[in-house]
Amino acid sequence: MATKQLHVVMLASPGVSHLLPILLLGHRLVTHHNLHVTVLAVTTTATTPQSLSQLITSFASHLSVIQIPAADISCVVPPDAKVATQLCVMMRETIPSIRTTISAIDSHPHVLVGDIFAYESWAIAEELGIPKYLFVTGTAWFTALFTYSPLLDKQVVGQYVDKKEPLEIPGCTPVRPDEVVDPMLNRDDENYAVYLSQAIGVTLADGMLINTWEDLEPQTLNALRTNEILRSVVKYKPVYTVGPVNKRYEPDGLKGEVVEWLVKQPDRSVIYVSFGSEGTISAEQINELAWGLELSRQRFVWVVRPPNGHVSDGSFFKPGQSDTTRDYLPEGFLTRTQKVGLVVSSWAPQVEILNHTSVAVFLTHCGWNSTLESVTNGVPMIAWPLYAEQKMNAAMLTEELKVAVRPEVLPTKKVVGREEVARMVMNLVEGEEGKVMKIKVDMLKEGAENAIRENGSSYISICKFIEDCWSQIK
Ligand code: UDP
């Protein structure tokens, strides 16, 4: 058996932040562990930026990537359902196409790996008689809260957000009630019921791979492996750390507008501002952020999107194309800041930016991919979480790892004021706080590099995963 090549089929739900880590993990399994990997990317036209096809193409030399159009769910869920609910339903409704696609793959798969929205596909693995593994693209702490949620549901009465005390997860750092993941914010909502089924569904896998590493989350990983209550919720299945699985800067000789601009700036002088692949903020918040950046008198690159509530014409606008960015910014902002700032519409080459020596700070929405990209490039952060599990990521970055600061929100206006933005930016770019954080984030960066190098903790964990897969193959 051991002379054969293990064939892993990896299933990604729609969205760059789900597909990207699947592609990256697949790439690592091929290049470092000599496996055969087929990635099934479920995609929708609505959530697919143009860069998605570029992304898939960039992995094509190592992985076979098959795109599967997501099922139309417009008759199944209301259009205002939460994104997480839509993804669960979309993946469930797409199962027949996924099954057909898998059965048409030339070489028989030995293992199925799916993200947290792909749990309905465990049935296909069972039909094929192959093991199935969950790949959590977020933290171990999120994994603990997520899988423990069905028990929490039995213990806690009333809304989580109304609780005064943090929510206890056995063996882990408690989670503040207002920092729970989105579907837990309203327990009366149908989205919460879908979330609980999902939390149970994912644990029916034969094990879980997590995009973290031992030194980053030792306490939580220990709890997932040894705390009797947590072990029971993950059904005594093994937990493998495979991270950081994240995009690295690979010089390709192409220099876009942003990098050309960065080259001209002094070392560690620029703040990069971006809210991920989907994040948007209100018009009022865009205004305060713009004034804050201007008041800070620091250099910046800012990826600006239309404010939430803006009625889009449906076209995903790229730099230079149907650029309406100036409509959302304060009058005269672009002119006044043209010597120190660069505003990019909707999408920027993030990894290239974070890798550049002139970048000092990342103001981020704390999506886990963005967070890892910042850490592995040694860039301290301003944590500005928006949705999903981002508030937990922000709490971990600021309170535990101390590589980020978090803004105070003006209670009366529910926005971060311009003075606060300016204060944080100045402190991190020029002040002592930024220097201390840079030392801490560089230590994390080193830990991350150690984890993934040959015989590092994540490398060994992946080897163990492969060994365990072989042992289950009949
Ligand atoms: N990204 C990018 N350019 C952008 C915005 C996002 O390249 O202008 C990439 C970013 O590098 C990251 C991913 O999109 O790899 C976003 O994933 P993340 O988990 O940070 O957040 P999400 O978009 O899911 O909220």
Automatic annotation (TrEMBL):
Top-rank lineage group of the source organism: Eukaryota
SUPFAM superfamilies xrefs: UDP-Glycosyltransferase/glycogen phosphorylase
Pfam family, one: UDPGT
Record-linked Gene3D superfamilies: Glycogen Phosphorylase B
Gene Ontology molecular function: UDP-glycosyltransferase activity
Entry keyword Glycosyltransferase: yes
Enzyme class: transferase
Keyword entries, A-Z: Glycosyltransferase, Transferase
Listed EC numbers: 2.4.1.-
Presence of the UniProt keyword Transferase in the record: yes
Protein name: Glycosyltransferase
